[in-house]
Amino acid sequence: MRLGFIGFGVMGVPMARNLARNFPLTVWNRSPSKHALLKETGAQFAISETPAKVIAQSDITFVMLFNASAIESILAPDFFHALRDKTLVNSSSIPVEFNEALAWRVRVAGGDFLEMPVSGSRVPAEQGQLVGLMAGDSQVADRIRPFVRPLTRSAVYCGPIGSGLKAKYAVNTLLITLTVGLSESVNLARAQDLDLKAFEQVLEACPMASAYSKLKAAKVRDEDWSAQASLKDCYNSTQLIESAAAAAGTRSPLMQLCGKLYKEAIETGLGEEDMISIAKTVGKKAGHRLDTR
């Protein structure tokens, strides 16, 4: 089987690397300079000139782009022409409606479509320990399972198209509120002049402890803002979640507040930093008020 991969963001590079270790891989990225990030890992892969040629040269192609606009920009007629008898796996975090329309366009072109957003950030991506949230035709999902194993520790079939994204919105609701809560917790410890290493030991011994809290608390303590999952991606998630909650007729008061905090962080230039950089915004002096109207 020949695989293809489109999109070399924070998540795309380690995902492509893990696939390249196991299968022949053809790749494309809008900025060719990003290919060097994959070359540095020693992975063996071929670079294609266009997204359509990736499809043509591959049996299964994974797409991991920032948003729906980025995906729409690659959907030229030759892209769909190349899809006959091929499989497209979209791992991007986008609106359900866009993915449903894309799935229809792929089927009309004679191809198979699978939705598979992933839960996890750069570290689990590097370790091949992401959680795949599969949606679409269950037979297509079963057929591609061997080819997502290098990426995931679990690939869960969630239901028809849209179900994987809906599951991701729900999971990311917990992730984002946890990130903001952890930022506030560590900032309060610091403001009270507590020893942060001692506080981390307390946190680690508590029932709320997790691999995530341990990793992110250490990043705040060390002021390590290098992106494992970027703040701009996190803000994008808050917008998707708020829209999904509105469509489902449920309230999301915490997500609305988190969205305002992340928007403020974006506006102060933190977009490319790690999502835990929200601690800088949360930790502003008490005189600063966030507009929650």
Automatic annotation (TrEMBL):
Against InterPro entries, the record matches this protein to: 6-PGluconate_DH-like_C_sf, 6PGD_dom2, 6PGDH_NADP-bd, HIBADH-like_NADP-bd, HIBADH-related, HIBADH-related_NP60_sf, NAD(P)-bd_dom_sf
Q: What is this protein called?
A: NAD binding NADP oxidoreductase coenzyme F420-dependent
Q: Report any Pfam family annotated for this entry.
A: NAD_binding_11
| Alphabetic keyword roster | NAD, Oxidoreductase
Keyword Signal (UniProt): no
Which family does the entry's similarity section mention? Answer: Belongs to the HIBADH-related family. NP60 subfamily.
Q: Where is the 3-hydroxyisobutyrate dehydrogenase-like NAD-binding domain?
A: 162-280
Classification from the root reads:
Eukaryota, Fungi, Dikarya, Ascomycota, Pezizomycotina
The answer on whether this UniProt entry bears the keyword Oxidoreductase reads: yes
6-phosphogluconate dehydrogenase NADP-binding domain mapped to chain residues? 3-159
Q: Which residues cross the membrane?
A: none
